[in-house]
Every structure is written in structure tokens, then in C-alpha cells.
Amino acid sequence: NCTITDLDISDNPLFYTTEASGQAGTAGVDIRKGIGENHTLVRLNLSNNGFLPPEVVPILGGFARNAHLQRMNLSKTILDEPSCLQLANALITADNINTIELRDCRMGPKGGGLVLHMIEKICNRLTKVDISGNLIGSYCIIPLTRCVQQPGCRIATLDVSRNKLEKDGGVFV
Questions:
Q1: Is residue 129 classed as helix, strand or coil in its secondary structure?
Q2: Cα–Cα distance between 48 and 148 in angstroms, integer?
Q3: Which of 25, 55, 130, 168 could form a disulfide with 159 if both were Cys (CB 3.0 to 4.6 A apart)?
Q4: Helix, strand, coil shares of the chain as percentages rounded to 5?
Q5: How far, in Å, CA of 114 to CA of 134, rounded?
Q6: Coil, helix or strand at residue 128
Q7: Residue 10: burial class (beta carbons within 10 Å; 0-12, 13-18, 19+)
């Protein structure tokens, strides 16, 4: 019965496992349940909470189960390859998401490639994409450049700064 539409719990050390506060893994599973079962949440900011990939994967599963979420911010959350695969699945399933902020998530070329291929598929509903500071490299940018060339692309704000695109990536852009 909760009617929260905008939740910002960024910059909180939710990743700590302590005797007094519980397990970090449990926090990830609980957040998954909360996100997946909420029917009013449209904006969620989980940036800079220090979660590690084992806690992030269940959280991303919650995104996939939420049909109402429009904006998600996971900036400064470590996203390894399995996390990026789960994120890509969440992006295709949660079909109302129009804003994704993934600043400084350390995706790298493999994980970044998974996410950017999905962004290419859903660029007709995305209006803001921030993937700055992920060291994705030159060739991960290719799906994104194909995306912005599509007639139905709705991306109005795109940040790919600090990704070591080098000369080849610059040519693609």
C-alpha cells in the first residue's frame, strides 16, 4: 500500500555486513523484493551504496520485475559481467525505463558491450543515458552510435565521457 514514487537512498553504506545491522547479501535480496513488488515507484537512486556484484544481481532482478520504474540511477555501483547481463535483461523487461544513469560503474568493454547492445534495442524509449567513466573502450561505442542513427531514437541526453574511446571510438562517434 506504499505510495512512494521517488526514492533516493544514495550515498549510504548499505553494503556493510555487521552483527548489529545484518548481512549485505540479505539487503540485496530485500531490495529486490521491495522494488519488484512496488507498484508506484517511478524513480530510484541506489548510487554509491558500495554494493558488490553478488548483492547487485538480485537488485537488478527487482528492476526486471517492476513495470512502473522510469528512472534508475546505479552510478558508482560495481557492475561486473554477470551484473551487466542482469542489467541488460532488466532493461528489456522493465519497459517503462526511460532514464538510466550508470556513471563510474567499472563495466569495462565486456560488460559495457552487453549493456550498450541492449540500449541500442530500446533507444526508442530512452531519453537520458549516462554511461560516463566506465572504461568501455573504442568498440563498445558502436551499438550506441547505431542507436543514435535510428529514426526512432529518443535519446536527448547522452554522456559517454571518461570511457577511453581513443581514436577509433572518436571516429565512430
A1: strand
A2: 29
A3: 130
A4: 40, 10, 50
A5: 13
A6: strand
A7: middle
Q: Strands, DSSP E only, in 9-149?
A: 43-45, 71-73, 99-101, 128-130
Q: What is the pLDDT along the chain (173 residues), one digit of tens a residue?
A: 678 899 999 998 876 655 655 666 777 888 888 888 888 999 999 999 888 888 899 889 888 888 899 999 999 999 999 999 999 999 999 889 999 999 999 999 999 999 999 999 999 999 999 999 999 988 888 898 899 899 999 999 999 999 988 878 778 77
Residue in the block written with cell 561505442: 141
* Residue whose C-alpha is closest to residue 9's, from 67, 59, 57: 59
User: What are the strands of the beta sheet with 71-73, ordered from one edge?
Assistant: 6-8, 43-45, 71-73, 99-101, 128-130, 157-159
Phi, psi (deg, nearest 5) at residue 14: -75, -10
**Spatial separation of the C-alpha atoms in residues 99 and 84, rounded to whole Å:** 16
Maximum Cα interatomic distance, the chain, rounded to a whole number of Å: 54
Q: What is the pLDDT of residue 17?
A: 59
Contact 169/114 with Cβ under 8 angstroms?
A: no
Q: CB-hemisphere CA count at 13 Å for 6?
A: 0
